[in-house]
Amino acid sequence: MRKLILTAVAFLLGAGVLTSQAQAKSYSGDTDTDILMMDHKVLELGDKYVAILSSMYQEEATRAGTLGYHSDLQDRDVQAQVARKQTLLSLQDALDKINPKTLSPYTKVDYYILKELIGEKLFAIENESELSKNPLWYLQAVDAIYDILLKNYASAADRQRDALKRVQTLPQILEQGKLNIDNPPDLFLRLAIEKAQLAYSSFNNVNFMLTKISSDEYNKDQAKKACAAAQTALKNYADFLKDIMLKKEYVDFRLGEENYEKLFNDVYQQEMAFSKLKKALDKELENSKKELIRAITPVIEPTLTEEEKADRTDKKGLITIFPQDYYKAVSTYTANPGAKKLLDSYADTFKKATVFFADKKMFPAGALQVVIAPAPKYLANKLTPISYLPPFPLLNKQMGDILVTMPKATDKELLAARFNYGLIKMDVLEYITPGKNLMYSISTEEGRVLRKLSNDPFFINGWVKYALNLAATTEYFSSQEDKMNLAWFNYTKALLAVAEYNMQTMATNYTQTVDYLVENGLKKEDAEANIDYLALNPLDAVAYVIGAQEFDALKSKYSKKINKELSLADYHEKLLSIGRVPVSVLDDAMAKEMEAKKVESFFNMTYF
Q1: Which tens digit of pLDDT belongs to each residue from 416-467?
Q2: Fewer CB under 10 Å: which end of the chain, C or N?
Q3: What's CA 444's distance to the chain center, in Å?
């Protein structure tokens, strides 16, 4: 196996050097030999990272579309993890020896992307101890099976072969988990038990999908046997985790202030001093709370009885409105398409939004495409009915998937509460256009591989919040319901950011954090679901707030050029075509993009 991996790495590096040479030759901003040499070193390290991804992180490589073993699952044994760590540390050491000031502006951005990509993986290995402390890591192998079955990136025969191989390998991965897991945090353990049980109960979906794309009876029989074995392994894994839960000592899941700061400043390379972060989050929360109260007051006040008004009236004679009143306000909007027409409603709303923003020349959404379909049971999400799958393979596919967890047709209460037309509009804006799918689907050149591999939360989440608030400046967002829903979105992101900061720095524990969210307006079940998510995805909520501020500042910088030299849609196309770069270098990257002229080269479209 090791020989096979080394052979593959050598092949990928050989292929990658050609890409690096092409990029190095295409840059002509400064022909200084030293700059070209240093650029070439960064590009070579980028090629090595892609090779590592393809040979050691096969599940991630499938999503990215890099050359690799798409029928393999990522080994989760001790030796494989040690090999990953040593390889990544070697790559990091080589990168640290390069002074970014000696690089061309274009390559400097790739340098920081590579620094972040390596840092994320090392942080997961060293600080989150995924091998022994994260039982959910092993269940990501189930996600990798769905990745192949849900995306038509290859022929049916190839997808059937690759998915079947992964199903057959799943029991081995879960056995590795049973060998490696040692007294994990209680929260991670509870969530892993829930996920393992859900995977077990819904694994018939895998068998159904495998059978559907197979035309060979032998393969269908193999799939049936493999799925049965995988289900048994999932049940045994869930039972194993339950036994640990009964015997274990309490272990805290929180990172602590030192690790949280390291993630913020070192891994994600935020320029803001960590000491100023809490103040910035508190300010955002204060402002967003005022906006929420302003938005829901016209809806709530007419619904109050005289007695309620009397109870809420303060010494100044003003009626007090609370954030939790949003739930009552949103319940006054009950019009919905019903379960049968739900997907059609998402599709129609998407089409209207695309036409509107293209006509307004606000976002480059004219040719945007997306698949909207029911979500498999396994992808059920406590936070939202939407599961979003970005376009992948990212290197050659531009269409994402919106998977909706469908309610029962008889559940009138849920349909009214979660699938009214206003909330469907918010879903479309957040996940399709101008949100995540637009961001992922703006085409970039084949040579800019690192910029497609980057998964920077400050860029991704920041773009979503920035784009929604910008969209709200148009008549598309003119109704009281729309304003109220957006105000709730902004308020909850700010509230969760403060809660996440306090929790991960150990100022509050899990129970205290849930209580804080409930006291400030969230229902208890929503508070718990959000905290579970943020425990597994530290800085996710913070990234919405800080990332959006970066996008706002950048737009202000170029405000004079927008509408004079280029439309807002053109500006956003340039911005998104940069790739998901660390926001600390977004300004520099955009400066070069604004100056760039597009030129066809023999190898690829590039910029100089």
Answers
A1: 999 999 999 999 999 999 999 999 888 655 557 788 888 899 999 999 999 9
A2: N
A3: 19
What pLDDT digit, counting tens, does each position of 1-21 carry? Answer: 434 343 434 434 443 433 433
Residue range 254-278: mean pLDDT, rounded: 97
Looking at 360-389, list the stretches that DSSP marks H as alpha helix, in order from N- to C-terminal side.
none
Structure-token pair, residue 463: 């773009």
DSSP 297-342: HHHHGGG--HHHHHHHB-TTSPBP--TTHHHHHHTT-----TTTTH
Distance (Å, whole) CA 492 – CA 189: 27
| Local structure of residue 74 (DSSP, 8 states) | -
Q: Exposure string (b/e) for 127-154, b if CB count within 10 Å is 16 or more? A: bbebbbbbbbbbbbbbebbbbbbbbebe
User: How many C-beta neighbours within 10 Å does residue 108 have?
Assistant: 21
Residue 153 confidence (pLDDT) above 80 = no
- Tokens encoding 498: 């403060």
* Token code pair at residue 46: 């980028």
Neighbouring C-alpha atoms within 13 Å toward the C-beta of 29: 18
Which of 167, 255, 201 shows the shortest CA–CA distance to 193?
201
Do 199 and 234 form a contact (C-beta atoms < 8 A)? yes
**pLDDT tens digits, one per residue of 508-563:** 999 999 999 999 999 999 999 999 999 999 999 999 999 999 999 999 999 999 98
Residues in Cβ contact with 419 at an 8 Å cutoff, skipping those fewer than 6 apart: 336, 337, 342, 385, 407
Note the pTM of the prediction, 2 decimals.
Answer: 0.91
543 close to 336: Cβ distance less than 8 angstroms: no
